[in-house]
Amino acid sequence: MTSAGSPSVPPAATDAAPGASTDAATPVVSAFYDRFPYPGDPLQDGPPPGYNWRWCVNAAYAACTGALPAAAAGGRPLRLLDAGCGTGVSTDYLAHLNPGSEILAVDISSGALAVARERLRRSGGGERSQVRIENRSLLDLADEGSFDYINSVGVLHHLRQPAAGLAALASRLKPGGLLHLFLYADGGRWEIHRTQRALGLLGAGSGADGLRLGRQLFADLPASNRLRRHHEQRWAMDTAADANFADMYLHPQETSYDLDRLFAFVASADLTFAGFSNPAVWDPARLLQGELLERARALSERQQWQLVQELDPDISHFEFFLSKGPILRPDWSDDTVLLQARGVRNPCIWGWPGTSLLDSDMAPLDLSEEGVLLLQALEAAGPEQPLERLLPDWSRAQLLSTARLLLEQRLLLLRPGE
């Protein structure tokens, strides 16, 4: 792994001795991921494909708060924690999407971390950000200070005591910081749980024999069997890599949630729910129309989510942001506030510069010529120039309407002015 502008550092120089983790599942989970380093995404030369906005701190803050994060005192770099980084897929994105940041990536599997180091070396991520990759538990980071952003995807549900893991992460999150989590959902894992229990009864285990027997099970079950059909239609491609198959069907320790237990879990750490990172999934308009959608829209936000959970049994996970402290949103409907704002272009789009783009969710988006001009002026002027000074030949109304459309399209990310 390399720091920005520094020579390559031997792996031994970046390893910390594993902490004395207090979670009982750590040894068995660590051994499992040493056998099956996860995720099994292939290594590649150059930056990771696509732009996942959830790992771009500016885009994540804007999605949750309507604004960019406050500038760090003294110009210090952002501090990011990838808690349970596995083979480094998320760390790679964090390094490329947040250049100049300081990133600590930890995991309890030395086997997975060996892959992570090679991934970051080949992608050049260590030249974009200052990255430390260490063999440590997320429960043992009390000496690391606080972080602006913490990513922990698919990790806490593999602890014997997930609430202890959430409390540990909350203690490392700075006030106003964001924590991104991914946890299993009960409903969409119904077939997965039955398959796991069946393999347990068959004594498959969590090693090479379990992998062989698990794949044999889906081959031997009748073609009409619900478990086999569900696997082939939904998960066969995702589990083509052995590590991914093992993680889904052979894992020795996991917990899943429904919405009620999820929000009780969040409350246990005194954190604020800041929104789903896949909000379109939780929009009733995805499933309903007409009178039924009108009735759904009359419900509270929490009740709408509950309705979606009941109507869509394929939801297999929750992915969401938590905040430490209240979420304060600027009032972009105030013309003066908007004109005095400073901003940047959302980096998580495809096709820029141009008018035919893919937005941060990879959906087609047509950008107006005025939108192109405003974003180009923003990039030329830099992030400290207020919007009102970017295009002096434009009318106030033209600037306000264009900026608000770009905000709605999530192409323009703003910070309130002084």
What does this structure look like?
It is a single chain. This protein has 418 residues and is α/β, with parallel strands linked by helices. The chain has 3 domains: 11-186 and 258-323, Rossmann fold (3-Layer(aba) Sandwich); 187-249; 335-415. 39% of the residues lie in helices and 16% in strands. The protein has helices at 11-14, 26-35, 57-65, 89-97, 110-123, 125-128, 162-172, 190-201, 208-220, 226-235, 242-249, 259-267, 290-297, 301-311, 335-339, 369-381, 396-408, and strands at residues 79-83, 102-107, 130-135, 147-153, 173-185, 256-257, 272-276, 317-323, 342-345, 356-358, 364-366, 412-415. The strands form 3 sheets. Strands 1, 2, 3, 4, 5, 6, 7 and 8 form an 8-stranded mixed β-sheet that branches. Strand 10 and strand 11 (364-366) form a beta hairpin. Helix 8 (190-201) packs across helix 10 and helix 9 (208-220) packs across helix 11. The radius of gyration is 23 Å and the shape is globular. Mean pLDDT is 93; it is low at 1-19.
Count of helical regions: 17
What would you give as the CATH superfamily of the largest domain?
Vaccinia Virus protein VP39
Largest sheet: 8 strands, mixed
What's the CATH first level of the largest domain? Alpha Beta
Q: What is the fold's blueprint, element by element?
A:
Blueprint: H1 11-14, H2 26-35, H3 57-65, E1 79-83, H4 89-97, E2 102-107, H5 110-123, H6 125-128, E3 130-135, E4 147-153, H7 162-172, E5 173-185, H8 190-201, H9 208-220, H10 226-235, H11 242-249, E6 256-257, H12 259-267, E7 272-276, H13 290-297, H14 301-311, E8 317-323, H15 335-339, E9 342-345, E10 356-358, E11 364-366, H16 369-381, H17 396-408, E12 412-415
Parallel strand pairs: 1-2, 1-4, 2-3, 4-5, 5-6
Antiparallel strand pairs: 5-8, 7-8, 9-12, 10-11
